[in-house]
């Protein structure tokens, strides 16, 4: 964290808020883990069930429809049950689905469990940023909000490492048996461990002070604020600010988001488009399909899993860069840097993939283009991680007015999952048609995201949540 602390805030209290923020962000870890674990299992599922690119695209992407549904309902549940209780429900759903995914008897059965997992992940994706924004002191909110994305990239990296270890233990082939199950089944079943950890931590962290004030528990809210901001912070003033922002409000509903422009308030459209652009640059193609992608251009199964892990490490490095900068230079500058870098990297990757030469059922890249493609993919992940990966989650947690935050965040997160689904379900068929063409499309959206940030995205650095409007 920063070398100095704001008046009334001590390192002890910052340590406590870091702990509860990290605990809440385990939902992001589940998001990342589930997103990437399927990467190692794709080849095994295809061979085990004998399905083609369209079917595997549906199986991989269908979890995202569940996530959209989970994100859609999460705001209402969080306002009715509380943030921590909603986290617990999400953890239980993910734990149950992890066992189901490991033991499918048909491809449609696997798809069902992936939808259920998606619901839990979608709920966690909404509650995590909202909870973190509501407990974090304003001076640290950007960095603490970044924990959500840090947890996501750590989940991705850990799942890639676990996948690699399981594949190696099974002799380098994900369809080989290991203690009675095929290796890809163990990959999916391993999701149970982080789900149980999330459930455990969601039972020990305090409830959001804003929710406590909203349900008339001001004394409990004062206690939580003292824990996260310090006994010497202006607790009466902070409670009064929250009460003022909530006094004339009712439970946010979707109708509260209505506006004159295309039926929604402008700030809600900004949140939706931030979510859409975050996905339309194609980042999750790297994490859902990179193993099969690199196998399709001539890299063996074991090495492709190792390459996938290396991109996860780059993802973590970029996330730490974002955490260091988000409260220093602001949200908008980071987004602009990321959009520019991603545009160039994706365009270069498209050029490299355009040199592919058919070789049986796969495509071979010349040595130079293969190296360029690998480097470009890593550069793309780096620029995404230090910008859009972190900043979108930070903005979604803090940019909406208090009176509509939960509902608006649910809509924006649902849009993100739908956009993710569109990219994920379309990639196998697009890649079969033209891998280079797919990456040209992602580069186009990266360039368009630059224009969007310049013209529409507000800066929220240093502002209290009660000031958003």
Topology readout:
Elements (H helix, E strand, L loop, with lengths): L10 H14 L1 H24 L3 H29 L1 H20 L4 H29 L5 H5 L1 H23 L7 E2 L2 E2 H7 L2 H11 L6 H6 L3 H12 L5 H12 L19 H15 L2 H14 L4 H25 L5 H23 L3 E3 L2 E3 L2 H19 L2 H11 L6 H52 L13
Antiparallel strand pairs: 1-2, 3-4
Helix pairs in contact: 1-5, 1-11, 2-5, 2-7, 2-8, 2-9, 2-14, 3-4, 3-5, 3-19, 4-5, 4-8, 4-9, 5-18, 5-19, 7-8, 7-15, 7-18, 11-12, 13-18, 13-19, 14-15, 14-19, 15-17, 16-17, 16-18, 16-19
Main location: membrane
Organism: Streptosporangium fragile
Protein name: Sugar porter family MFS transporter
Work out the number of β strands. Answer: 4
Strand order of the largest sheet: 1-2
Q: Can you tell me the overall shape?
A: globular
Report the end-to-end length measured between terminal Cα atoms.
Answer: 28 Å
What's the gyration radius in Å?
22 Å
Q: How much β-strand is present in the residues?
A: under 5%
Structural class designation: mainly alpha
Q: Write the H/E string, N to C.
A: HHHHHHHEEHHHHHHHHHEEHHH
Number of helices: 19
Average of the residue pLDDT scores:
81
Major sheet attributes: 2 strands, antiparallel
pLDDT < 50 runs, ≥5 residues = 1-9
- Helicity, in percent? over 70%
How is this structure best described in words?
- The chain is globular.
- It has 19 helices and 4 strands.
- The two termini are 28 Å apart.
- It has 469 residues and is mainly alpha-helical.
- Helix content is 75%, strand content 2%.
- The longest helix is centred in the last third of the chain and has 52 residues, at 405-456.
- α7 packs antiparallel against α15 (301-325).
- Strands 1-2 form a two-stranded antiparallel sheet. The protein has a two-stranded antiparallel sheet with strand order 3-4.
- β1 (177-178) and β2 form a beta hairpin.
- Residues 20-461 form the Major facilitator superfamily (MFS) profile domain.
């Amino acid at each position: 964290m920063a070398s100095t602390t704001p008046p009334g805030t001590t390192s002890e209290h910052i340590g406590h808020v870091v702990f509860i923020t990290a605990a809440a962000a385990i939902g992001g870890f589940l998001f990342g883990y589930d997103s990437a674990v399927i990467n190692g299992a794709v080849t095994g599922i295809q061979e085990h069930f004998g399905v083609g690119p369209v079917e595997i695209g549906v199986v991989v992407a269908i979890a995202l429809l569940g996530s959209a549904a989970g994100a859609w309902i999460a705001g209402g549940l969080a306002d009715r049950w509380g943030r921590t209780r909603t986290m617990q429900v999400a953890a239980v759903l993910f734990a149950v689905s992890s066992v189901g995914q490991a033991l499918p008897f048909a491809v449609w059965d696997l798809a069902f469990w992936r939808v259920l997992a998606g619901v839990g992940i979608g709920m966690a994706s909404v509650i995590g940023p909202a909870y973190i924004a509501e407990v974090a002191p304003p001076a640290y909110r950007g960095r603490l909000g970044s924990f959500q994305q840090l947890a996501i990239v750590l989940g991705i990296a850990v799942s890639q490492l676990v996948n690699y270890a399981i594949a190696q233990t099974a002799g380098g082939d994900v369809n080989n048996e290991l203690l009675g199950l095929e290796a890809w089944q163990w990959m999916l079943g391993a999701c149970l461990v982080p789900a149980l950890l999330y459930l455990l931590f969601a039972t020990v962290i305090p409830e959001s002070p804003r929710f406590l004030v909203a349900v008339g528990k001001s004394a409990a809210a004062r206690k939580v604020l003292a824990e996260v901001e310090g006994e010497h912070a202006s607790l009466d003033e902070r409670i009064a600010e929250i009460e003022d922002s909530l006094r004339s409000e009712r439970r946010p509903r979707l109708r509260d988001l209505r506006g004159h422009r295309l039926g929604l308030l402008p700030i809600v459209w900004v949140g939706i488009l931030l979510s859409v652009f975050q996905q339309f640059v194609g980042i999750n193609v790297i994490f859902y399909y990179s193993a099969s992608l690199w196998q399709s251009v001539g890299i063996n199964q074991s090495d492709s899993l190792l390459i996938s892990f290396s991109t996860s490490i780059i993802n973590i490095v970029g996330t730490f860069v974002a955490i260091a900068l988000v409260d220093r230079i602001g949200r908008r500058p980071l987004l602009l840097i990321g959009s520019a870098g991603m545009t160039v990297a994706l365009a270069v990757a498209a050029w490299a993939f355009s040199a592919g030469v058919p070789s049986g059922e796969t495509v071979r890249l010349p040595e130079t283009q293969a190296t360029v493609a690998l480097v470009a993919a890593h550069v793309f992940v780096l620029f995404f991680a230090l910008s859009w990966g972190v900043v979108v989650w930070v903005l979604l947690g803090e940019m909406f007015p208090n009176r509509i935050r939960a509902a608006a965040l649910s809509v924006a997160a649902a849009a993100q999952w739908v956009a993710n689904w569109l990219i994920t379900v379309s990639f196998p068929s697009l890649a079969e048609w033209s891998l280079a063409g797919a990456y040209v499309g992602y580069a186009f959206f990266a360039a368009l995201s630059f224009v969007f940030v310049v013209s529409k995205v507000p800066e929220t650095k240093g502002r209290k949540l009660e000031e958003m409007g």
